[in-house]
């Protein structure tokens, strides 16, 4: 290769196992992504989960590097196969080489050599390349598959939010405050959202009598909200609901039913207050009469003393 990246002679590059060969003719410019000469090339077999396609089985795949390397004109990529490893019903002539564009396999014009058990295709750039075998539709029985209901990403997010409703009672049996303890999902599962809205409702006699909205930042894992009734509630059954606002409406995440039975303070203490007031009045009158009696006795004592 000269300084401009041009191959001076015919050559080939082969993986150690001999399964992949890159045939490079003379006078091919081999450049990197920056348009400069690319002095080295690599090919790594992909041993993990291979990218899938519904119309073919991926027999093997290689990551060719460096990424961005180009060939002008094209070079030949040759991949070997073993006949006894082909899928049932697959013919050798059906094999082809494809490259992975990040979302799907792109089929390349390929030539199969059944003598050497190889498939060859021209390539002009490096990417992930694989050897594919078309799936034979006749090898599968056709049956009716019931539709599968899948939950949306938003629905799964809603279901990962947890809340608990904690009513706090006053001494007379009324509710003085309601705490809402919530726990949010980890930032990884928040679908890129920055905040969500929690909705708290108070329901009495099947009617919503109060609604509060709370905007929560998804940067926090958990927290505590407080709801304080702005009006006095009467006796009866009440339902509290916490929901998450979503695209299709609201998703309930917590409910709590309570029975309120208020005992007014005046019914409990009026009799005691009246008794204490009466006792205080009697004591006051007794003290006043005692003072008057003492004064009368003193005046009488002085009169008797003067008469002597």
UniProtKB/TrEMBL annotation:
Keywords: Membrane, Transmembrane, Transmembrane helix
Keyword Transmembrane helix carried by entry: yes
Transmembrane segments: 276-299
Domain of life: Bacteria
UniProt keyword annotation of Membrane present: yes
Protein name in the entry: Uncharacterized protein
Organism: Dehalogenimonas etheniformans
Upper classification of the organism: Bacteria, Bacillati, Chloroflexota, Dehalococcoidia, Dehalococcoidales
């Amino acid at each position: 290769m000269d300084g401009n990246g041009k191959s001076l002679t015919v050559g080939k590059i082969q993986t150690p196992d001999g399964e992949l060969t890159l045939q490079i003719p003379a006078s091919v410019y081999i450049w990197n992504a920056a348009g400069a000469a690319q002095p080295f090339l690599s090919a790594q077999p992909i041993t993990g989960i291979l990218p899938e396609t519904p119309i073919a089985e991926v027999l093997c795949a290689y990551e060719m590097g460096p990424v961005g390397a180009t060939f002008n004109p094209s070079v030949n990529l040759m991949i070997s196969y073993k006949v006894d490893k082909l899928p049932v019903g697959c013919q050798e002539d059906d094999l082809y080489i494809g490259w992975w564009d990040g979302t799907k396999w792109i089929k390349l014009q390929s030539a199969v050599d059944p003598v050497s058990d190889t498939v060859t295709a021209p390539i002009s750039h490096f990417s992930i390349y694989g050897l594919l075998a078309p799936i034979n539709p006749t090898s599968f029985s056709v049956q009716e598959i019931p539709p599968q209901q899948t939950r949306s990403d938003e629905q799964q997010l809603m279901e990962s939010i947890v809340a608990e409703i904690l009513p706090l009672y006053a001494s007379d049996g009324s509710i003085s405050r309601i705490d809402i303890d919530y726990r949010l999902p980890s930032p990884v599962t928040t679908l890129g959202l920055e905040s969500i809205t929690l909705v708290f409702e108070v329901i009495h006699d099947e009617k919503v009598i109060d609604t509060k909205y709370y905007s929560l930042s998804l940067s926090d894992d958990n927290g505590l909200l407080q709801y304080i009734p702005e009006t006095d509630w009467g006796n009866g059954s009440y339902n509290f609901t916490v929901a998450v606002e979503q695209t299709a409406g609201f998703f309930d995440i917590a409910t709590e039913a309570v029975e309120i039975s208020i005992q007014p303070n005046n019914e409990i203490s009026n009799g005691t207050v009246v008794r204490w007031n009466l006792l205080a009045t009697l004591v006051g009158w007794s003290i006043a009469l005692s003072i008057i009696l003492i004064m009368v006795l003193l005046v009488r004592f002085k009169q008797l003393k003067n008469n002597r």
